[in-house]
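hey
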């Protein structure tokens, strides 16, 4: 699966999720669920079959957000030899591209509501992952779920981010609970994205040693910096993220998230100001949550 960001250690969330195209500044999609399994699904031979009622789909959306980086380099800097770096302007543009991808990761993993903007003063903002999760959200005392513009049926877009509750310790029991809830909801959670401190806390869970797959040299298998935890519902990667919320464990099934791109990352030349060249890197994107019940969150956590 190709990704907007190529370095999965720097941007694990965006790297793991899918890619799609946004057709407008408010990008919409529909979510639905399978009916509950029915062990009494039976019919008499030759029976006249009646139509079944089906749960209606839910229409949701998110706003695209324009993100930029501007690089200006003097003619002198472009002319001199900067300790083997070559063209200073090209070097700074490359660095700006890396910074832009980090900004996207920070936005997409965060607790940010969507903002429509007004096209003049207020910029559009895309809702981050933590502002989508309601069905399998485990919060501290006083914490509250985000609010959707369509109300209790979960339609529309997140208008209000989640409310912070009282901090509590990150424990294996909490993790098992949210993994179980996601699985019952139909998801297949296989990534737990946290800050480094919370990942280090998870590494000390009492049952973790017996729940790791051992390689031939008896060391825990590591994939791209992630410990593989064997839970009751399958293997789960514990992944550190430099830019995610410091008090949350984002537990996801990546198949139900994607980057919706209205305008891909590209360079745009800006007006020259005196003896300097100026370019902007920009993109316009949104985060899509295809079914929030397929993921979950442990919020209001503190490291041991």
């Amino acid at each position: 699966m190709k990704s907007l960001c190529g370095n999965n250690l720097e941007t694990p969330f965006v790297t793991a999720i899918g890619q799609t195209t946004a057709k407008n500044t408010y990008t919409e999609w529909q979510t639905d669920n399978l009916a509950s399994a029915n062990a009494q699904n039976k019919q008499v031979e030759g029976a006249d079959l009646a139509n079944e009622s089906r749960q209606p789909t839910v229409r949701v959306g998110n706003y695209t957000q324009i993100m930029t980086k501007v690089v200006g380099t003097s003619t002198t800097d472009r002319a001199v030899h900067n300790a083997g770096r070559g063209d200073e302007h090209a070097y700074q543009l490359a660095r700006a591209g890396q910074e832009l991808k980090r900004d996207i990761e920070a936005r997409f993993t965060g607790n940010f509501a969507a903002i429509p903007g007004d096209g003049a003063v207020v910029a559009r903002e895309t809702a981050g992952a933590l502002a989508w999760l309601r069905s399998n959200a485990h919060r501290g005392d006083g914490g509250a779920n985000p609010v959707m513009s369509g109300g209790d049926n979960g339609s529309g877009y997140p208008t209000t981010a989640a409310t912070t509750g009282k901090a509590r310790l990150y424990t294996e029991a909490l993790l098992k609970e949210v993994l179980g809830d996601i699985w019952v909801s139909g998801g297949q959670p296989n990534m737990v994205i946290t800050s480094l401190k919370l990942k280090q806390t998870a590494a000390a869970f009492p049952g973790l040693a017996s729940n790791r797959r051992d390689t031939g040299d008896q060391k825990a298998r590591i994939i791209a910096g992630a410990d593989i935890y064997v839970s009751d519902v399958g293997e789960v990667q514990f992944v550190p993220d430099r830019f995610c919320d410091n008090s949350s464990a984002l537990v996801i099934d990546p198949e139900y998230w994607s980057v919706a791109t209205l305008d891909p990352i590209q360079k745009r030349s800006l007006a020259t100001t005196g003896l300097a060249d100026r370019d902007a890197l920009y993109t316009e994107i949104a985060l899509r949550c295809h079914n929030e019940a397929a993921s979950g969150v442990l919020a209001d956590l503190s490291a041991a």
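Helices lie at 12-16, 75-79, 88-108, 172-184, 196-202. Residues 69 and 100 are 7 Å apart (CA to CA).
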